[in-house]
């Protein structure tokens, strides 16, 4: 897989992790009571969702540059499993093994992410890496790009790292996120904007596993 493809897949998977981390309400030790209440309701919404499907647009922009990039994608999640579809790649993760198919290269990379890679490729373990890692603050109310009324919550890391802050817009009535923005210390700001989210999408476990029979001509590269 080319390096630029890896970066994009990792970046999007990182947002999957942050998205799941937020939904489960496990990554934040919020001090503000309002933020605490909002996150608890979000956690309950995900736990009762019976699996979700979401369409999103991801925007990335660097500080001092007018130009940026964007792409659309879809994701289905159940527990710590996910299937992610973007223009660059299809990614399946069953909680242990990840398969990333890049059509342009006609290859599938198989990995069991370890070490620092986990925070980019494994949402479940990302939860642990961010556990107690943020302070949450309630910032008020606003209107999301989808027109829904939202609560605004800002997460600030307790220790210095690549992430400077995470900004969340959380729908007031569904308790699901409408927009998540992550600002990095290198000045790059990335936003994932949820356009549609459905609950009750209880996919079988095999849905989160790469089926080699569906891609008989691809080269499978086992990097485990």
TrEMBL record:
<dbReference type="InterPro" id="IPR029046">
    <property type="entry name" value="LolA/LolB/LppX"/>
</dbReference>
<feature type="signal peptide">
    <location>
        <begin position="1"/>
        <end position="32"/>
    </location>
</feature>
<dbReference type="Pfam" id="PF16584">
    <property type="entry name" value="LolA_2"/>
</dbReference>
<keyword id="KW-0732">Signal</keyword>
<protein>
    <recommendedName>
        <fullName>Outer membrane lipoprotein carrier protein LolA</fullName>
    </recommendedName>
</protein>
<dbReference type="InterPro" id="IPR004564">
    <property type="entry name" value="OM_lipoprot_carrier_LolA-like"/>
</dbReference>
């Amino acid at each position: 897989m080319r390096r630029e493809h890896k970066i994009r897949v990792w970046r999007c998977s990182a947002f999957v992790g942050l998205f799941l981390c937020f939904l489960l309400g496990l990554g934040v030790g919020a001090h503000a009571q309002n933020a605490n209440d909002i996150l608890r309701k979000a956690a309950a919404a995900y736990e009762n969702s019976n699996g979700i499907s979401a369409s999103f647009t991801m925007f990335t922009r660097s500080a001092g540059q007018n130009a940026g990039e964007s792409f659309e994608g879809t994701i289905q999640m159940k527990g710590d499993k996910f299937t992610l579809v973007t223009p660059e790649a299809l990614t399946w993760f069953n909680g242990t093994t990840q398969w990333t198919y890049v059509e342009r290269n006609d290859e599938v990379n198989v990995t069991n992410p370890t070490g620092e890679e986990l925070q980019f490729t494994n949402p479940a373990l990302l939860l642990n890496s961010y556990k107690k890692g943020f302070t949450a603050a309630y910032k008020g109310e606003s209107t999301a790009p989808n027109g829904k009324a939202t609560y605004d919550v800002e997460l600030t890391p307790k220790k210095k790292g690549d992430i400077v802050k995470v900004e969340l817009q959380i729908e007031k009535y569904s308790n699901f996120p409408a927009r998540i923005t992550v600002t990095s210390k290198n000045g790059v700001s990335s936003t994932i904007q949820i356009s549609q989210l459905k609950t009750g999408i209880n996919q079988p476990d095999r849905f989160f596993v790469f089926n080699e029979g569906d891609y008989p001509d691809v080269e499978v590269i086992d990097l485990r």
